[in-house]
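tool_call predict_complex ligand=glutamine
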Amino acid sequence: MVTAKHPKVGVLALQGDVREHVRVLSGLGADVVPVRRPSELDEVQGLVIPGGESSVMDKLARSFGLFESLRQRIRSGMPVYGTCAGLIMLADRVEDASPGQQTLGGLDVTVRRNAFGSQLESFETELSVPSVADEPMHAVFIRAPIVESVGDAATTLASLGDGRVVAVEQGNLIGTSFHPEMTGNTVFHEYFLRRVRAVADTASATP
Ligand code: GLN
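tool_result ok
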């Protein structure tokens, strides 16, 4: 049985680093399922969109008939956590998108894909994320997007030393340019699961 303590959450499993997220979420006590079909999406109370390649994920979401269902669930308040390509999928606006690339949207932000250029394809740094964790966290960036502008509806959660924004939230949507699933730091996944539990508790309290 699905309970708020062991919520059923999905990892969008079209492409990307699905397994790492499944491992982290399972370790935190969630009942985790890979999501490839609308029927699988219907069963989950929250979703992680992994890193990978956002233009490919977009095409696959459309060819698997998932795109509109994902949009609807996002609009209806399902908690979603997107890392890297997942953040791009959640952004309302994208710079340097592939031709024809669409996003699911939901976060009132503009992201720039591959924003660090080829000389800095990947790097690691310490980040302070005061609303999520007391301690600074180690963050890994891989061909990462940057949040170029944050609209009125979204909130910045973390920035690099130079002020560039790398983590945001809006309602039940959370997005990070970096990959906590790769470092063993679970604070963002815990933050996401708290949202999932809060929404599940509200739903079960509604007569
Ligand atoms: N550069 C990729 C994209 O545009 C994202 C990279 C990642 O998810 N690690 O989708």
